[in-house]
Structure formats: C-alpha cells, structure tokens
Amino acid sequence: MKSIFEGLGKRPIFLIIGIIALTLVFLGGIKQNASIETDLDEYMPSDHPAFVFSDKAEELFGIQDGIILAIEHPESIYNTATLEKIRKITTDLPESFPVIKAEDITSLYTAENITADEFGLEVNDFYTQAPSSQAELEQLRRRVEDNEMVYERLVSSDGRAALIMAEISDDVFSDEFYANLKEYADRWSGPETIHIAGRPVVEGELGKLGPQDMARMAPLVLIVMIILLLFLLRSLRDTIINLVIVLFGTVAAFGLKALLGIPVYSVDTMMPVMLIAIGVAYGIHMHNTIDHLVQLHPGIEKQDLVRKTLTAMVRPVSMTAVTTAVGFTALLTSEVLPVRFFGLFTATGVLLEMLLALLLFPASIFLFGPPRPKKKRKQAANLGANTSSPGKTDKFQERGRRFTKGLTKHPKTVILIATSLTALAAFGATQVWIETSFLANFEKDSEIVRTDNFVNKHFGGTSTLNVILSADEPDTFKDPQVLFIMDDLQNRVEEDPAAGASFAVTDFMRRMHKVMHEDRPEYNKIPENREMIAQYLLLYEMSGDPDNLNQVIDYDYQTANLTIQLKSDSSAVMNRIIKEVETFESSFAEHGVRMRYAGSGYKAMVFSELLLQGQIWSLALSFAIVAVLLWILFGSLFIGLVGVIPIALTAVVNFGVMGLTGIPLSSATALISSIAVGIGVDYAIHLIEHYRSARQAGFSIAEAAADTMSHTGRAIILNTVAVMGGFSVLLVSVFPPNRQVGGLIALNMASSALGTLTILLLILIMMDRKERFKIPSSKTSETEGSAGDSRRKPVNNSQQTNYPGGNK
Amino acid sequence: MKNSNRIAIISALLILTVAMAVPAQETGLSVMEKVYNRPSGETMTADLVMTLTNSRGSTRERTIKQYKIETEDMEKKLMFFLAPADVRDTSFMSWSYNDGRPDDQWIYLPALRRVKRISSDKKDDSFMGSDFTYDDLGERHPSEDNHRILREETLKGENCYVTESIPVDSGDAFAKTVSWIAKDSWTGIKREYYNEAGEVYKTLTIGKTEKIDGYYVITSMTMEDHDRDHSTTILMENVSFDDANIDESFFSERQMQRGPRR
User: Complex ipTM, two decimals?
Assistant: First the structure.
C-alpha cells in the first residue's frame, strides 16, 4: 500500500498530468451529460402506497397544479376594458403558450353560470363580449356575487381582483416558461397589475434559486477557507494541495454522475458541501504529520520524510475515508432515489479525496523538497524548553498537557456537562418539525412571497389538499347522509383561518338545489332526498359541462374528491387540517367511506416524512457500520462502541439545535446530519489511532493523551476552524435554506471536534486506566501504571522520533 | 325491323349510358341531402341504451325511452329515463326548429315534481351529456356546410362516397368532417371530425344499420372523443315507426310529468 503511494509520489509530473487528464474527462462529462432535474415528482418513490394512491386520484379527477394569473385593478374589475382583458388573456394563453391547453384554463370568461327564474333554468356564460353599459356591468357584478361557485373563487369579494387559472402538467414549468410568462403578464399590465402565482412557480423558482445561490456562495466559501488555511497552515503549498483535493473530489463526484447519465438533483447541492468539509480533513492531517516530522528532524531527506509520513498516515487516513464512505453508503437504504445517488457519489468522492491526499503530499515533497520548519514554531519550542516540563516540548504539547490534565481532573464535571447538554439536545430533537413549505425558503419581501400573500388574501388559497373519499359501494355519494358529513367537514375545516375554501360535489348540489328553487337562499343546502341528488347530478351532466363534475366525483359515484384550498403551503398547516379532517373518519366509516389524501402538497409532505425516516434509519445504520468497522480495525468491540459516541453526540446536537432554534427538517437540512458521520468518524479514528500508537510507543496514559491532544487535537482544531470559517460565509446567503446549511455545518464541525476532544478522549483515558483499552503488543510496550501514576517519559528519544507512527 | 332493332339497341345503349352517368353526377351536396332527407317516418319510438365510457374504462349506462315526431318546421323529441332507478321518470323534451332558431328544451325531475325550461347559449350542445351533439344525431342541415366528394371507396363491404364537409360559419367546433356514406341506403358508415390543426379529434362509427318498417335505421353507433379519451355508444332497441297513438300533442309538459306510455 505504502509503496504504491511512494512510487506514484516519485513521479509527480505523471501524477499531475493524470489528475489534470481525469479532471478534464469529468468536466467534459459534466458539460456533455449533466442535466438538472427540478421536477419534484422525480424524487418521489413512485411505488410507495401513498404516492401510488395520490397519482391514481390525480389522474381520476384531473388534479393538477396550476399557474395563477391574478389581475388586480385599482378600483374594480367590473369595467369593459378589464373584462375584455380577462377574455383576451383566457383565449390567448393557449395560443401564446402551446403547453397550456384551452380546456385547462378557468376564468370568469370560461365559467358557466347556471341560474333560474320563474321561467326556467339557464346555463350561460357570464359574458361572451365584455358588456359596455354601466347597467350591464352592474348586472354582471350581481350575477357573480350570487354565484357561490365563482364569487371569492374567481373574483375577489371586493371586486378588485380576478383570477385566470391554467393547469399545467408537472413537466411543463421551466425557467424559460416562467420568464416568458412574466414578460407576457407585463405586456398585459396597466392599469391592472398582473401577478403570477401558483405552486409550479414557487417550485420552479425554488429548484433554481438554491443551486444558483450555492454556485454564487461556493467560491466565497472556498476563498475564506483558503485564507484560513493559509493562516493556519502557514503553507501555500499545502493550502493549494488541500484545495486541489476538495475540488477534484467534487468534480469527480459530479463528473462520474454525469458520465453515468444520472441527472443532478437538488439534494446534490449538498455534495460539494460534504466533500469540502470532509476532504479538508485529509489534507490537514497529512500536513500536520509532515510538519511534525520536519520539526523533529530538521534536514530530513525527501525519501525518508515520505516514508515516515506514509507509515504514519496511510492507515488512519484510509481508515477514516473508508469508514466515512461506508457511512454514506448507508444512505442507499433511503426510499428516495436522489438520496441514494447522493450517498453513493459522496462516498466515491470521499475515497478519491483520500487517494489524492495520500498521493499529492508525497509528490509535493518529491517535487519541491521537504517543507522548511517554521520559525514561530521553533521559538515556541524554545520557550517550551524553559518550562518545567522535561524533554523537548513545544507550545502545542504544553497546551495538550494542560488540556488533558484539566479533563482528567474533573471527569465527572465533563461528563455531567456533556450529559446535560445531550439531554437538552435530545429534548430539542423531539421539537424538530418537518417543513416542506416551499415559500418558507424565500425572503419575506420577495416578489414570490408577496404575490402569494396577495392571492391568499383575496382568494381561497394558493395551496391545495385533496381529500379523496372512497366508498365500498357505487352510488354512495348520492346518499344525502354522506353528503351531509362532507358538508359538515367542509364547514368545520373552513373555520380554520388557513383554509380559505373547499370544493366538492356538495357545492354542485347546493347550487343546483338553490337554482331549482328560484334562487331562494334557504335552498342553499344539500337536498335531503336521494332521488333528488341523483336527478340533479343527471341534470348537471346533461346541461352543464360534464368535465366540471368529473373533477369532484367519479363515474360510479363511488369516489369523491374534496379539495381544500389552503392559504399556506406549510406542511405544519396541512397536518393540522388533516387532523381536523380525520375527526370525520368514523362518521364516514359508518357509510363504508374511507378517507385518503392526494395532491402535490400532500405528496411533498409524505415525501419529507420518508426522507426523515430514511435519514434516521441510515444514521442508525451508519452508526452500526462504523462501530463494526472500528471493531475490526482496532480489534476491540469496546473501541467500536466508544468511537461512535462523538458521531452520536454530533447528530443529537444537530437535531437538538434544529429543534430549539426552529430550523425545520427539509430535504437539505435532513442530509446535514450525514456530515456528523463523515466528520465524527474522522476525528474519532485519528484520535484513537494516535492515542494507541503513543501508548504503544511506551507513553504513559497522561503523556499519550497529552501527545494526542497536541498532535491530532491540533489537526482536528485546524480542520474545524477552517471548515467552520468557510461555511460561516453561507450565513450571509440570500437564500434562507443555504443559511441554515452553513450554520448547521459549522455547528456539526464544532460539536464533532468538541465531542471527540473531550468525551471520547476522556473515555479512552478512563478505559485505559481500567485496563479495558487493548494496546497492540510491540517490542516496547509494557504495562502502564494505574491512575495515580505520574507522567512517564518516553523510553528514549529515538522512540519519539519514530513518532507519530503505528506499527505498520 | 332492322331499323327498329337498331333504334332499340341505340336507345338501350343511351339509356345505359345515362343510367351510368347519373351516379357520377352526384355532388357532395346532393349526397348529404339524400342522407338528410332519407325517409324516416313521421314518428319514431325507440328504447335507447346509452353507454358512456371514460378514459379509465368506467361506464355509465342509461336507458331512455325516446319518442320523436317530425313536423313541417321542427323535430320534437321526448325522452324518459327508465334506468338507473334513481332517475327513473326524469324526462327531457326538445324542440329543434328547422329555421335555425335555438332549441327549446324542458326538463322534468320527478323528485322536484316540476317541469323547468332550460335555455343555453352554448354552441354544440351535447346530447344528454354524451359525446354526441344534437348535430351529430342528424339534425345538422346540409346547408350549414360546403360539401364535396373526395373519392369513392368500400368500407365494411359497403360502396361509399367519401365526402368532405366544411362549415360555412367558421365559428363551429370542427374545422371539417369527412363522412363515409353508403350508396345503397344513404346512411352514414363513419365520420371523422377534424380540428383547426387538421387532427381527427372525434370519430363516429356506425355499428349497425337495420331496415325496420321499410326505413333504414342506425341501431348502433359509437362516438369517440380522442381528446378526452371518452366514448358514447347508443343502441336502439324496440324501434317502431308511425305509431298512431303519437301525435304532436304528446310532446307536452303534461306528458313529461305523466311518464312514458307503457
């Protein structure tokens, strides 16, 4: 293993050419094949029962998301010009946008008005040509306000706004479509304002904004990280290598994906985030070791330095990378396909980063010679020599010693603090809620949110929940008892301020009943007689537009679609409404009617629940995998279990902080907990490996701990500071979810580092004292003293010069 | 004798030529007029079984007793629902005027015990919520379209004229229709409806034509709406013509409430 890296490192030019060539292949692949998938339906596991049912119901009732054009007039839409404009847009839309079908457009112009007078029943358009006289306009206004199926649905109650709705299929919405639509709306504006709203707009914009913002922020993240690395490592060479590692890892992950013809999903925005946060660690640990060796052996030969470095690092670096990669492959258990790909390609990227770290650092030594020891470090070391500590120690070692001393002096305090923080976090984790709201991702004063608020204020709502009622028997929905329950349900739900309106076969029945009774308001209710309902349905089928009825009831009157319009796309709101709806479950059950749900909002909610479930499962699974791997690698089940502690703590704190600060779980934030595995494992392995090597080299418990802190601890802190600093840049992002990502990554880095350097180290020390820590036998190893034993010097200097090193 | 023989032969040849020439002189209009004016009796009684099938293959079946009378200036229809049971005795009456005035329509709902007049300004009203419009059921006057014969061909064993009809008034639902007309019975065999884009969006297929009481009657037909993926089949059973008990006074609001004559 080592000789391969050494051999390749000796041919730096070949290596560089190889990396450039591969990078070009991957970039070419991205350029050629990469396609971005923004259709959320592509994310959903289509064979999940909830989705299967929803899709079937959507097909049965023609449930589709719609684009909403809201036409707002400063005074009133009841004027010739505005009505004419509504007519023209209604008829022109399918011509200007061939993807919109004429029959999928609803507006005051397309609406039919069933009215009655003493002579009979009339089925008319509200208007065919915009009326011109004041009397006619006034009459139109009255007709609209008399029709419950139009008033407040297509025309606002103050008469100042009207809607044109166009249902489109999922794959229609694109940037270009939206841009054209905006331009189209502008063209028709004045004196009216034309707003564009609707779920496809929000969904489309969201799918675009996130990656766009990430693309803008990513260079900033990198720049800040470069500056931090330069400052922390004090090495331009190693900073550049670090940069090459993370960039290559990212390009390779996306490139392989593109070459295999897999589209880029929005969760993939998290891929570079993971690969940067994790990849930097490999470089930093390599740098740290080389730096350390150079300090110990001024004037060391290239070959010797490379060999010593590889001896020390191949094992921990490859171990951390393999465990991290295996941890990510736990995401393959997710029901969500893009998440599976995310896990797979992030794992691949991590392994490539590991290889690169092990190749590039030796190559840089062969190419440019060993790095020079730093002046400041020397001074620190000299200063350290003046202290009471025996032997050659530097500032870091002294700090490490003090830290571990403090740690071991108050183990109870440390554990108490850690336990109470974990308990608080665990409580916080129970407060985490899932939020699938798309709108919550936009700034409150953004155009999209304002438009949505406008439509929600004046109309039923921009979001919908479809309650699908399926009966055991045909003709069930001709039963007045069943319709009464539906009507009650609608009334109950509409009491919730978030539910603006609802629409079902009941509304047709109320309208028909009233119309057949000369529009007398007391007949605005469900008929009490089954035959009458059947005959009204027949009459509507014969005289109205049968497609209207097909949206609320199926052919056998066995399945009904009750649409609830919501003024918020929050899944919390939807859950609340579903709870209210569920209170009618038993009443329906008495009539053999079962309630289920459909629609894109509902699917999005189920989807994120799946995502969350999957995330928790794969987290648990990756804990288990990591534990087993550590068990195998260190030959101790105990280490396996202990090594998982920092990961578990990081995950709990992550969810806890989300719960306590009100960051909801979404597809992006759910994946961040995966980083707990990636980073936590790295830290744990480096720490355990170093401690073990130190003990093996004959260090006392306390010395081994101090040395581990000063060496690995330093690398961990450098890594944490660089990554935290870089991702903190995201906190100023204009896209709220990316701010959350930045904050949570920083948090995860901090808690991983803190958990590893305190709890994990403390447990290692305590285990060791109780002789539960197996140290692999080596020629110099001997039984250590018990807890009270004072610091013991390393056996000799040569021992330390080998250091840090394993026995391999 | 020889001369007279010759004359006879010449005359026979002449008659033959003229006889052969006559069908060749058919025009699109004359074909469609023959279809429109095909004798169909003054009154007709039939049981209609109407089956609506949607894209999912679900069906709604309705049985309707239909009475029809042709008068000089209009056609009157009176229909009573026999099944499904919950709409039994619901009745529907329409008077279609030959002069192009909008139809008069009435509905009677037994549960409401009231006859209501229905008026609608919608064009191409569907027949009882089916895929057929009233026009499709033979009430569209040939003068509403410009016709021409495209070709002659055999369809389902019938020698047919294939005619194209383009509406005079461009406001119609279809851009043109192409019809297959059987030469010997002057009944349609098939008709395709084209939209502005030149695509067939509806197809009418005649399943069966029977000769009853000396009249050709279409007793099975299906209209498919390709856009909606929806179809309607109408079967005619118990067809009888010129029932002496039925006259114009039968087509009244009173009769609607009284129910079908049994």
Answer: 0.85
